């Protein structure tokens, strides 16, 4: 696999540029669009995406672009940038300070470099395949907690596909009773960055989009964690079904979630 880590400094600068744009905007109610039920978009998402796409095209002209707002149905290519210009749009529109920019380069179906930039806190989480994960230059490592009962979890609530609601709620009930707590921040990119940093012990969600997790899953893997689908498979970038955790906890969490989804 070709080493693309040399692109990370330029990619980080581009994410900071887009973050600066986001932080200096103000959105009015009439400027908000509904993509679908419970899914909002504003001119800020589109403006940040335009900034990012322009920079990426000059950075690596050979790569295609899969972006949330401008090309959600783009076919997969062997080399492509995957962009979420504002993961946590609803948080942003309501003034809740948890939203991020997520950009990853995917080569032959695998993320090879990625950044999740926490816009409010100005933290840049970066990773390159085989070279580790970092936050503002400090190396990251997933938690080493071996006990589910001592763990701190993150998840995302289903917001458009409710076919597996009973399975999801069964998992939620189990983890509510058998962990130290569950948080729902509203940005899968940040959830995964926080798993990579050891702040959360694990994260699970189903039916996410590729741009939600392409960068964050690489962060977790390069920080020593394990990422899988909810049935244990490795095609999470395409399915959007995601479990991310430390190696110690992954087998137990996988078994709980897999059983719930198989029986509901």
How does this model look, in words?
- By secondary structure, the protein is of the alpha+beta class.
- The chain has 2 domains: about 5-140, Fructose-1,6-Bisphosphatase, subunit A, domain 1 (Fructose-1,6-Bisphosphatase, Chain A, domain 1); about 150-264, D-Maltodextrin-Binding Protein, domain 2, CATH 3.40.190.
- Helices cover about 35% and strands about 25% of the residues.
- It has a 7-stranded mixed β-sheet with strand order 3-4-5-6-7-8-9, with helices on both faces. Strands 11-10-12-14-13 form a 5-stranded mixed β-sheet, sandwiched between helices.
- Helix 4 links the parallel strand 10 (about 150-155) and strand 11 (about 180-185).
- Helix 4 packs antiparallel against helix 8 and helix 5 (about 190-195) runs parallel beside helix 6.
- The N and C termini lie far apart (about 40 Å).
- About 45% of the residues are buried.
What does this entry show, briefly?
With 264 residues, the protein is α+β, with helices and mostly antiparallel strands. It has helices at 8-23, 43-59, 89-94, 165-178, 188-196, 210-222, 236-239, 250-263, and strands at residues 32-36, 39-42, 64-67, 79-87, 100-107, 110-118, 123-128, 133-135, 138-139, 152-155, 181-183, 202-205, 226-228, 242-245.
């Amino acid at each position: 696999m070709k080493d693309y880590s040399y692109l990370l400094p330029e990619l980080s600068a581009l994410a900071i540029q887009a973050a600066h744009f986001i932080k200096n905007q103000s959105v009015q109610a009439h400027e908000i669009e509904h993509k679908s039920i419970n899914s909002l978009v504003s001119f800020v998402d589109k403006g940040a995406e335009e900034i990012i796409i322009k920079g990426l095209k000059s950075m690596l002209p050979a790569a295609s672009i899969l972006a949330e707002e401008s090309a959600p149905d783009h076919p997969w290519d062997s080399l492509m940038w995957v962009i979420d210009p504002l993961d946590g749009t609803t948080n942003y529109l309501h003034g809740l300070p948890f939203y991020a920019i997520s950009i990853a380069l995917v080569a032959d179906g695998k993320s090879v470099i990625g950044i999740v930039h926490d816009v409010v806190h100005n933290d840049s989480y970066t990773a390159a395949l085989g070279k580790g994960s970092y936050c503002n230059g400090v190396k990251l490592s997933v938690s080493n907690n071996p006990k589910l009962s001592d763990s701190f979890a993150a998840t995302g609530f289903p917001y458009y596909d409710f076919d597996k609601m009973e399975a999801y709620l069964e998992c939620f009930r189990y983890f509510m009773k058998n962990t130290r707590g569950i948080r729902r921040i509203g940005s899968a990119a940040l959830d995964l960055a926080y798993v990579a940093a050891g702040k959360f012990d694990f994260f699970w969600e189903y039916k996410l989009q590729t741009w939600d997790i392409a960068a964050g899953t690489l962060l977790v893997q390069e920080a020593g964690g394990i990422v899988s689908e909810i049935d244990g498979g490795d095609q999470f970038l395409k399915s959007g079904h995601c479990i991310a955790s430390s190696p110690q906890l992954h087998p137990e969490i996988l078994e709980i979630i897999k059983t719930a989804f198989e029986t509901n």
